[in-house]
Amino acid sequence: MRSLVTMVAAVGLLLGAAAPAGAHGRVSPDIVDTASGRGNVVSLTFDDGPNPPDTPALLDVLRRHRVKAVFCLWGDHVVAHPEVVRAIARAGHTLCNHSMHHDDLTALTPEQIAADLRATSAAIRRAVPHARIPFFRAPYGAWGASADVAASLGMRPLGWRYDIADWEPPGTDVLVQRLLDRLTPGAVVLAHDGGGDRSQTVAAVDRVIPVLKAQRWRFTLPRGC
Ligand SMILES: [Zn+2]
């Protein structure tokens, strides 16, 4: 029995080495933009953090409303704020590789992209050892070869159904209205917790979640993780 356990553990290690994020080997390079589950489901995804104080404030909002989300992490910011990455992981949210420097990856070769994505995952795992990173999202949605490269590294490319365009903060009321008006069942929604002052996004999410829950929407993770 013990030898079987040892063997299974050894195979697990080998698989882990071949596919660092997806524990079960092959990952589809198809870009996923759909929330898991049926009916009125939505996945919240937040890009460009970690970014104190907005990311910790967002974590507090999500904790109070009991919602799990995906955080697409910018490697340079991971290096600057590893404690915030730990807080994200500790809260049970899902991690997504968003490249090291937020470059336009369409200008890079597959080898250069692979080096960037590996460096980003390594930075995340320096903050959170053995972190599961099931997703990759290309900066600007400029995929180039990165969807295939990410899949080969065990990360599913994560797209989105709509972007609330909060990179130029239009006011919390406008963000709330965008979130409520544009929502369709199964949408993966893109918002930002980093890359600038995201306090309006945090406030909007805090207001929108109870409204949607009252309308029986459910918050699920994207398919494929
Ligand atoms: Zn981004």
Which descriptors would you attach to this protein?
single chain; 225 residues; alpha/beta; TIM Barrel; eight-stranded parallel sheet; 8 helices; 8 strands; globular; binds zinc ion; Polysacc_deacetylase_ArnD; signal
- Mind telling me the C-alpha Rg? 17 Å
Overall mean pLDDT: 91
The 3D shape can be described as globular
Strand content: 5-15%
CATH structural fold name: TIM Barrel
What is the highest CATH level, the class? Alpha Beta
List SSEs in N-to-C order. HEHEHHEHEHEEHEHE
What does this structure look like?
With 225 residues, the protein is an alpha/beta fold. It has one domain (31-219): Glycoside hydrolase/deacetylase (TIM Barrel), CATH 3.20.20.370. The chain contains eight helices and eight strands. Helix 2 (54-65) runs parallel beside helix 8 (199-214) and helix 7 runs parallel beside helix 8 (199-214). The radius of gyration is 17 Å and the shape is globular. The protein binds zinc ion. The site of zinc ion (ZN) has 5 residues, from strand 1. Residues 40-220 form the NodB homology domain. InterPro entries: Glyco_hydro/deAcase_b/a-brl, NODB_dom, Polysacc_deacetylase_ArnD. Keywords: Signal. Residues 1-23 form the signal peptide.
